[in-house]
Amino acid sequence: MIQLSFSDKIELGCDEAGRGCLAGPVVAAAVILPSNFKNKLLNDSKQLSKKNRDLLEIIIKREALSFAIGIVSPQEIDEINILNASFLAMHRAIDEIKGKYQLLLIDGNRFNKYKKVPHQCIVKGDEKFMSIAAASVLAKTARDKIMKELSEEFPQYGWESNQGYPTKKHRDGIRKFGANIYHRKSFRLLPNQLKLF
C-alpha cells in the first residue's frame, strides 16, 4: 500500500525518468503534496497506462503545493555520466520549488546531498510513497512530451513510441541513419559496436 508520508516533516518527493535511454535528456520532477492528499490510482509511473499517467499529471499539478521539472541534456550526460546527470536533474527540479520543505524523499539508493536539506533514499520509493510516485508521473509525462517533439525532427527512430529506449526500431534506426545530436554518445548505442561516427 502506497503511503502518504515518511515522517512528520514537510516532505518533497523526487524521481527521474529516462536514465536507461539511448537518446534524449534525463528529466526529474520534485513534488510537495498536501498532508491530506489521496488518490487510489497513484503509483510508480512505469506501472501506469499512458491514459492514467496523463490523468494523474493533471490531478497532481492541480493539487500539489508545489512541483517543478529539472532537465539535463544528452551532452551534459556524456560529460558527467548518467548517475551524476540524474542527481543534477533532481537538484534542478528542487531549485525551482516554491514553498517550504524539511525532508527530501529520493527514489533509489544514492543521491548527492542538496544544500543542507536532509534526505532519505528509498529503493522503489515510487511504489511506496505518494510524493515520489507523483514525481515519477510528472518526470515521465514531461519526458515523453520532449521525446515526442524530438521525434518530429528525427522520425526514423520511433521516439514517439519508444521514448529513446533501446528498442529494435530505435537500434535499427541507428544502424541505418547513424546517431544524431540527441543521442548519448557515452552509451553503447549498438551491441558490440566498433565505430559509429
Summarize the structure.
The chain has helices at residues 50-63, 74-80, 82-95, 130-153, 159-162, 168-177, and strands at 11-17, 26-32, 66-72, 103-107, 119-122. With 197 residues, the protein is an alpha/beta fold. It has a single domain (11-177), classed as Ribonuclease H-like superfamily/Ribonuclease H (Nucleotidyltransferase, domain 5).
Description:
This protein is of the alpha/beta class. The protein has a single domain (11-177), classed as Ribonuclease H-like superfamily/Ribonuclease H (Nucleotidyltransferase, domain 5), CATH 3.30.420.10. Helix content is 37%, strand content 15%. A five-stranded mixed beta sheet has the order 3-2-1-4-5. β1 and β2 form a beta hairpin. The mean pLDDT is 95.
Spatial order of the strands forming the largest sheet:
3-2-1-4-5
Strand content: 15-25%
Q: How far do the termini sit from each other?
A: 48 Å
Structural shape:
globular
Descriptive terms for the model:
6 helices; five-stranded mixed sheet; 5 strands; 197 residues; Nucleotidyltransferase, domain 5; alpha/beta
